[in-house]
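Q: My collaborator sent me two sequences in one message, no labels, and asked for predicted structures for both. Can we handle them in order? The first one she listed is below.
A: Yes, handling them in the order given. First sequence, followed by its structure tokens:
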Amino acid sequence: MQVSKPFLIRRAAAAAATLSALVATVVAVTAAAAQTASPSDTPSTTPATSPTSTATASATATREPACNGTLLNGFLIMHNNENPNAFCPDFAPVTAAGPYTVYGLGLPTDQYRLVSASHPAHLPHTTTITYVPLSGVAEGEGYVTVSVTTTFKQPSVVNIPPGGNANSWAEARYLPEPGVANTSAGHSTAEWIGPGGLYTLSIDSAHSSLTLQQAAALLVPVDLSQLQASLTPTATVTPQPPATGNGTTRRSGDLAEIVLFAAGLLLLSLSAGIGRAVLGRRR
């Protein structure tokens, strides 16, 4: 069957129109579906992680072990008398570089007196100066002491006994160098590290009204030899040479013998005199 050319043209145009309508329908359905289901309407199955929580988790995960004490102005404050752990600074022996300043206290002389200025026999590298009040307390009470040791370990360990206040040792900036201090009902102590060594200011607070701040304000550099000379009483009697058994110096036993011998001679002479008197009367 022979098909005419106009017929073929009409068939091709109809097919093209049908295909075009089909494509338009698919496009419309796809656009409608995209508008109906937006990303915000679909719930997320993965929980959101905030930057803050991520940073916190990371810091916690990489946290390094720390020293079990508190470092403050060159001192390591230990709670419950614990020993420093392996993460605390090394306690290396230190010798003070100098100048080796020794501190005393400019206390009123009508209220306190100096009783000691020396190196204790068991602490050859330590100098201790001690004052006591003149009245109001028993002997040995109310003392105030300033000491310095030229050889020590740094950081210096300060212990808080079990049950003690964790904040009992606090920073003290009223000292010649920033240090630490502890004040209790019976005892007050301040410590600092300077060129002369490790210094300690101690007060018997149970029998003295002097505070650490007041005492620190009275700290003055002193000459140890002058303080020691002021403690030495002035001799009023010329010292005598020790007894050797020779010369004119007599021991107490020798003097007793001389006295007895002289008494014997006296009695003998008296007896002789009485005898002569009796014989003279008989004649």
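Q: And the one she listed second?
A: Here it is, processed independently of the first:
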Amino acid sequence: MALIITNVKEKFVKNFKDLANEIHANVEICKSRQGIESELEYTENGYTKEFEKQILQDMQEIEMQRKNGTLKTYNNVKEAFESEGII
């Protein structure tokens, strides 16, 4: 998830960095809009380029596991949770 905050004072940036550090979040500071705008470009499917690329990679990995017979499948949610030790 990304949070973009524009037009802030330097004092706020320092405080926000401290907060992000406390919750173990990554912070990237862009002083110009150029870096931000490229990240906000959406594909024809309505996703960011980075997100769609990751989803497509995940789909390829799932398909490969399915073909190799190593994909875990379950008949219902209870079976999946029990298998993963959640319940």
